[in-house]
# Entry
Amino acid sequence: MMATLHPKLSEERSQTVVSSTKSVKLKIKRSNPNVNSEERFDDYVVPIEKWTTVLDALLDVKSHLDHSVGIRYSCRQASCGSCGMKINGKPALACFTKISELDSDTITVEPMDNFPVVRDLAVGFERMINNHKKVMPYVIRDDSEIDPESGMREFLQSPENVEKYIQFSSCIKCGLCNSACPTMAMDTTFVGPQALAQAYRYIADDRDKGKNKRLKVIDESHGIWRCHFAGSCSQVCPKGVDPAMGIQLLRGYLLGIRD
Amino acid sequence: MERETGAREGLKGWLNPGKIGKFGIERLAWLLMRLTGLGLLAYFIGHIWETSHILDGKAVWDKSLEMTQTTEGHLFLALVIGMCVFHTGNGIRLMIAQMGYGIGKAERPDYPYKPQSINMKGKACIYATLGMAALAMWYGMAVMFA
# Structure
């Protein structure tokens, strides 16, 4: 049985523009390191609307032109951090980048720098996640949230103190900061802006008692001192985390300026 | 299996001038800081080598000094002055920023996100340092070519 559309909805649909008059050339970097070292750019022409994102265009290519393009994506709303890639030479989330805002007829998409390529635009996050784990991204305390007498309890936090680290809690681990970082470009063992910003997030949390443990992890030759404040990490962060600020504030603890 | 090849961009990650256009004046300052650091290190080694000629007698010492008494030598020294001023000025800016001053205050960010650490104070310092380096080079050349 066919459902009948409400007259108003029907009218709205008839007014919706379904065909696009504009199109862009999408240049996608293709490679499969598991097969060979060949790298090439494949060009696809895709129709766009004002609201089309780079991810929409890539999915258009996958649906209609070439099913074999390798990408990683999930939420389509800049929450999961899966679709990070280099768009016209700058790291960005594909789902958060509108083609109309790029002001270019040719969009070049490449896998993020400073990450091993899995295939085409998908990169491996193993090293970044390992560094993230290394800084112990959780509240460390001697006591537990499980209270033997009353059951579960909460470690309460004041609104004033939340403001000190809330900015750094927005990290979605997309890896754009590590991709933009010029130190990461030269030093594969550098802990990276993502992990350092997370170290600051937990150290600045006054419920946490793991400051000394974390500072020990980052105070080494490939740790925090390798950052030379180019600021590129903060410029590409899609969530306003500002890792460069976190790193400089973190240095204050090691220099004895901050308690 | 992930392949580690390509896990770093390498030299083009920091030498590529295209990155400056994409990441701004802070990236230029970062690049110049590295280049001037390497330049000053090379000058320092060359300077030790040049002044070591004093051990070989006055004639050799005078001859070694003549190396910088040419137009090319003067231009080279002017470049050294510029590198020295930029490296010092930018180094002071970085030391202050790395102590946590002038980089804003951590707070809840609002869209569209503007990183507080990349602010006008920092940009003004970079432009001022570049200006001072250019001025020092100009003064050095004015003295040397007078």
